[in-house]
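Retro notes (design track)

What went well: tokenization of the new backbones is finally stable.
What didn't: we kept losing track of which sequence belonged to which structure.
Fix going forward: every design gets posted as structure first, then sequence, in one message. First example under the new rule, 620 residues:
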């Protein structure tokens, strides 16, 4: 997307003589894509008004020339007093009037501008300032904020202020070297574009520039279908927030971004939203990305991340399918998947790296019956990855509870990949230079809460050419240790698998953490056989016997065999079977950060309901 600037007309100074800028609008509004691209720049906005003037002096009443106790002051004669009184009250009246005008001006300036209606519209290149329509009845504007399209087939649509586009039938908007639908800030109203269609209606918008653009907010609602295609820039671009609601479908294909916004993006749609990009992001939000509503969201990019949010990503009760380059999903401030069905693919970028699910300054949380299938392929790759090296930022933790997760990182997809370790003539194991590929990794540096990977009542299959699961904390003194915590689940593979300790001094910095592996020794390299390259962690099955017949005793519930990996829990209830992996590290970590209180019955339901999906993904 290319930079744009929108300048507003200056506002005359109020009568009180103070210059107060009009804060109902932005003096400079820019619509820029995310700053991750070298072409991007952050948008600048003017902050709140600050004036050094005070209104108190405007309402000061002149004092009488009274006789003060203990002193004698000569009073003027009556005529003089009358003249003073008349003159003083005229000055007071002028001050009151002037003060009232300034107060009203200040209050109106401090209030946000309200979008009431479009100030003008352009349809097919023709500008209208009053209500208008065509003879065929394919479009009509009421002179305010409503523009109706009914089987419209024509040129660009533009407006200043607020515009509601209501479509029915089959509508086609085509433009070259100009946006197909563009709403900009007006003189008195901020830009706002609302698009709504009936079931069965379609709105197809194509341009060499942005297909759909608003310098303010964009809201797409209804049961119809919106198809936006840009052969040069973004398909849908909001200078403010973007919301997609209802039960309709949205298809956005852009040469730059598919769907993007300078603010938040909220998809609360029970239909399908598809965003495809060639050069940049499939979906890009400068703030938070929220997906909910039970629908399906698909995002892809041929040369960049499929989904990027400079804030957080939260997917709740929805399906998300993404395929990107270098990153599948990159959320700067955390990823939360709550009862979501997510498939993520990431192929290597130009520097050889690939991360399927990645957050830099926060945590990855998967909970409440989510099903996640993440795959990354690159010289340095991870399916789940969180990293934090900022002392004042939280993050660097992965919490998985009551869910099914598959996380695979490969050097070469469907290939043998590099040799992850080798032995010299003396039998010493040494690292090979090719690749670092880890299924699930959490990493922190000194000054932040140590890296934690927590798995509770969940089935997790993790594979990596270097390591399956790894938590690492780096510090100068070696006292900070990354940990893996497994609760109400057991390591099923590899045989004899457990949580093993890792410790290494590299360039004066200690790396201390844990991995899944075998043996009792503390390891100093991931490129050895003791570190598992593949692991399966799962809760024990919860038996659900048939209801007993009358006068028949209910059969006892099956329990897992007691072993080193499945010790008999103390105080366990007879209706639940609990197993925990026993390791040198404590496995009593509770998912306090998520506030999750789901029981074992939830994961049993999840495993049963996602059995077919899990079986299919395991075979893939």
């Amino acid at each position: 997307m290319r930079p744009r600037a929108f300048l507003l007309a200056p506002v005359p100074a109020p009568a009180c003589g103070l210059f107060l800028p009009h804060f109902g609008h932005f003096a400079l509004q820019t619509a820029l894509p995310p700053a991750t691209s070298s072409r991007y720049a952050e948008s600048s906005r003017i902050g709140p008004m600050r004036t050094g003037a005070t209104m108190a002096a405007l309402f000061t009443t002149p004092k009488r020339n009274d006789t003060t106790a203990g002193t004698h002051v000569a009073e003027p004669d009556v005529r003089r007093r009358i003249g003073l009184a008349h003159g003083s009250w005229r000055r007071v009246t002028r001050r009151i009037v002037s003060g009232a005008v300034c107060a009203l001006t200040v209050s109106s300036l401090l209030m946000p501008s309200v979008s009431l209606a479009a100030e003008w519209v352009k349809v097919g290149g023709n500008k209208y300032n009053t209500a208008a329509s065509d003879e065929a009845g394919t479009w009509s504007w009421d002179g305010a904020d409503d523009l109706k399209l009914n089987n419209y087939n024509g040129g660009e649509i533009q407006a200043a202020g607020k515009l509601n586009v209501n479509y029915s039938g089959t509508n086609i908007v085509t433009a070259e070297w100009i946006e197909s639908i563009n709403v900009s800030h007006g003189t008195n109203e901020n830009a706002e574009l609302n698009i709504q269609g009936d079931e069965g209606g379609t709105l197809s918008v194509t341009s060499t520039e942005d297909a759909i653009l608003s310098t303010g907010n964009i809201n797409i609602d209804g049961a119809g279908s919106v198809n936006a295609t840009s052969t040069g820039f973004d398909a849908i671009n909001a200078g403010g927030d973007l919301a997609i609601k209802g039960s309709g479908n949205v298809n956005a294909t852009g040469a730059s971004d598919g769907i993007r916004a300078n603010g938040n993006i909220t998809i609360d749609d029970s239909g399908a939203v598809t965003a495809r990009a060639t050069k940049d992001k499939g979906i890009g939000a400068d703030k938070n990305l929220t997906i909910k509503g039970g629908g399906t969201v698909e995002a892809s990019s041929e040369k960049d991340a499929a989904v990027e949010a400079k804030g957080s990503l939260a997917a709740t009760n929805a399906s998300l399918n993404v395929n990107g380059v270098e990153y599948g999903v990159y959320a700067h401030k955390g990823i939360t998947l709550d009862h979501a069905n997510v498939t993520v693919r990431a192929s290597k970028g130009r520097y050889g790296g690939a991360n399927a699910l990645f957050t830099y300054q926060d945590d990855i949380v998967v909970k409440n019956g989510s099903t996640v299938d993440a795959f990354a392929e690159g010289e340095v790759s991870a399916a789940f990855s969180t990293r934090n090296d900022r002392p004042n930022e939280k993050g660097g933790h992965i919490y998985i509870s009551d869910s099914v997760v598959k996380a695979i990182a490969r050097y070469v997809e469907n290939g043998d990949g590099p040799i992850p370790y080798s032995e010299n003539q003396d039998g010493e194991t040494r690292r090979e230079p090719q690749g670092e590929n880890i299924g699930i990794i959490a990493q922190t540096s000194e000054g932040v809460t140590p890296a934690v990977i927590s798995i509770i009542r969940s089935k997790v299959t993790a594979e990596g050419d270097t390591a399956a699961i790894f938590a690492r904390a780096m510090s100068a003194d070696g006292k900070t240790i990354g940990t893996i915590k497994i609760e109400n689940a057991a390591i099923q593979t590899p045989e004899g698998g457990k949580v093993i300790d890792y410790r290494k001094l590299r360039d004066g910095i200690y790396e201390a953490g844990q991995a899944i592996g075998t043996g009792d020794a503390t390891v100093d390299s991931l490129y050895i056989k003791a570190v598992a390259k593949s692991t399966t962690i799962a809760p024990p099955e919860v038996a659900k016997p048939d209801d007993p017949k009358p006068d028949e005793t209910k059969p006892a519930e099956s329990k897992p065999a007691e072993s080193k990996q499945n010790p008999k829990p103390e105080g366990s209830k007879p209706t639940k079977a609990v197993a925990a992996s026993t390791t040198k590290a404590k496995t009593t970590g509770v998912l306090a950060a998520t506030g999750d209180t789901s029981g074992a019955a939830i994961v049993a339901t999840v495993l049963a309901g996602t059995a077919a999906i899990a079986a299919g993904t395991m075979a893939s």
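Added context from the reviewer: DSSP finds three helices and 48 strands in the chain.
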